[in-house]
Amino acid sequence: MVSRQLTVFLAGLILVAFALWQLEQARSGVSTRDMDIGATPATLYWDGNAAPSPVVVVSHGFAGSRQLMQAFSLHLARAGYRVLAFDALGHGRNPMPMSGDVTAIDGTTALLVAETRRVIAAARQIAGASGDVAVLGHSMASDIVIRAALAEPDVDNVIAISMFSEAVTPQAPARLLVVSGEWEARLRTVALSALQQVDPEADEGDTATSGDVQRRATVSPAVEHVGVLFSAHSLRESLDWLNRGFQRSEVPSVEPTGGWILALLIGIVLTFRPLTARLPQRPAAEPPTTKRLLLAIGLPMLLAPAIGVLVFRPFLPVLVADYLLLHFALYAGIQLAVLGRWPVQRGELSWTGLALLLTWGLLFIGVALDRYAASFLPTGERLLVIAALSLATVPFMLADSQVSGAGAGRWWQRLVARLAILVSLAIAAVIKPEELGFVLLVFPVILLFFLVHGTLGRALAQRTGTAASGIGLGLILAWALGVSFPFFAAG
C-alpha cells in the first residue's frame, strides 16, 4: 500500500513538472509587461524585437479575463505582433465595475465599447507599434470589438471568436474572420449568416469577397465555447487572417496549452490522494435510504428556483452572485431538512484534512489557474463577496456530501446530485431569463469545480468523513464563483 501511494504521488509530481515545463515553453521568447490604461489593467506581449509591428488588441468574454485569452496572446506575439490584452470593466483585476443596462446597446455595451476604444488608442502609442491595429474578441467581446472597430476608421482587421453581434452589415467590418467551435451550433449559424451577407452561396470554411469587404467563417473541430480558445485550428486561422491583412508571413509553431493545463490539474490532484492516506481513518456516515435520497435531490431541485425567483432582490455588487447565494442557501436548507441531520457532529471535523484540501484547492490549483488559464486571485473587494457566498455554499456542500455519498457514494448517486443543481439553476434562468439568464454562464465554473475540486473532496471524505470535505469544498466553491463573475454597479 505504501509503495502504491508513493508511486501515485511521484507520478503526480512528474506530471506537474512536465506540464509546467511545457506551459513555460509556450511562453518562452515572449516578453510581457503589465500596464494600466487609465483604470483598465492590461498586459503587453511581444517577442522582444524592436522592429515596428501591428498591435492586436485582445478582449475576453463575459466572466473571462486576460489569462483566458493567453493562447492567442502568446501565439500572435511569437509571430512578431505586439498584443495588448486587457481585463474589461468588472472583470479580472479591473477595479471599475460594469454598469448600465446589460440588455441595451446604449447601456453596458456602450461603456465596454468606449473602454475598448481607449485601449485601441493606447495600442497606437506603444513603443514599437507600427500604427496598425487589429482587434480580437471572444463571445461577449466579439460584439464589443466589432462595434469598436466600426467606430475606428483605421481598424479594419477583426477576429470574432464565438461571435454573436447585430452590428455586422454586408459592408462592415471590412475584414472579418469568425471562428466558432464545432459544438456551438447556434453561434455557427450566426457566423454563417454573417458570411452569407457577402456571398449568399458561401459555406463554412469559405472566404467571401465583395469589393473591399472580405469575410471568412471557420469551425474549430471538437471544441465548445471555452475549448475554442485553446484550439490549434483557432490559433492558426487567426494568425493566417492577420498575416494576410497586414501582408506578413511569419508563422511560428502552434503551442496548444489547453491539454497541458488539464495535465497540470490532474497532476496536482494525483499528489493529493496519497497524502490523505496519512490522516486518521474515520468511520463513514450511514447513507440515507434510496427514498430519502431521491427526495433530498428532487425537492430542492424544484423548490429552490420556485421560491428563489419570487423573493430575489439584488444585494451584492457581483452580477448574479446574490442570486446564487440565495439559491444555494434554499437548496441546502431543503436538503438538510429532508435528510434530518446536520452533517457536522462533535469530533467529526478533521482540521488537518480541511487545511490540506484548502492548500491544494486554493493555493496550488489557484496559482496554476491564475497563471495559465483564468483570473483566480481575488482583489480585496471580491474577498467580501466570497465571504458572503460561503454562507450558502458551505451548507450546500455539506448537504451535497451526504446526498452524493461523498467518498462512498455510487457513481449514479454523485451524477444525479450534480445534475440536479444544474437543472435547478437552469429552471431559475428559464423563469426569469432577462434577470437571471446570466446564471447559465456559471455552468462551466461548477462543472470544473466538481471535476477537479470534487475529486479532491471525495478522496478526503473517504478518509475523514464528510465534514472537512464539505466545509472545504464549500469555501472553494464560494471562491471560484466570487472571482469568476464581474462586479456590477446598477445605473
Explain what you see.
- The protein is of the alpha/beta class and 491 residues long.
- It has 2 domains: 2-258, Alpha/Beta hydrolase fold, catalytic domain (Rossmann fold, 3-Layer(aba) Sandwich); 279-489, no CATH class.
- The protein contains 15 helices and 11 strands.
- The protein has helices spanning 2-27, 70-78, 105-124, 140-151, 185-196, 232-246, 258-276, 290-311, 321-339, 351-372, 380-403, 411-431, 433-436, 443-464, 466-484, and strands at 31-37, 40-46, 53-59, 82-86, 98-99, 129-138, 157-161, 175-181, 207-210, 213-220, 488-489.
- The protein has a 9-stranded mixed sheet, sandwiched between helices. The chain has a two-stranded parallel sheet with strand order 5-11.
- Helix 7 packs antiparallel against helix 10, helix 10 runs antiparallel to helix 14 and helix 10 (351-372) packs parallel to helix 15.
- The longest helix is centred in the first third of the chain and has 26 residues, at 2-27.
- The chain is globular and about 75 Å long.
- The N and C termini lie far apart (61 Å).
- Keywords: Aminopeptidase, Hydrolase, Membrane, Protease, Transmembrane, Transmembrane helix.
- Residues 52-171 form the Serine aminopeptidase S33 domain.
In brief:
The protein has helices spanning 2-27, 70-78, 105-124, 140-151, 185-196, 232-246, 258-276, 290-311, 321-339, 351-372, 380-403, 411-431, 433-436, 443-464, 466-484, and strands spanning 31-37, 40-46, 53-59, 82-86, 98-99, 129-138, 157-161, 175-181, 207-210, 213-220, 488-489. With 491 residues, it is α/β, with parallel strands linked by helices.
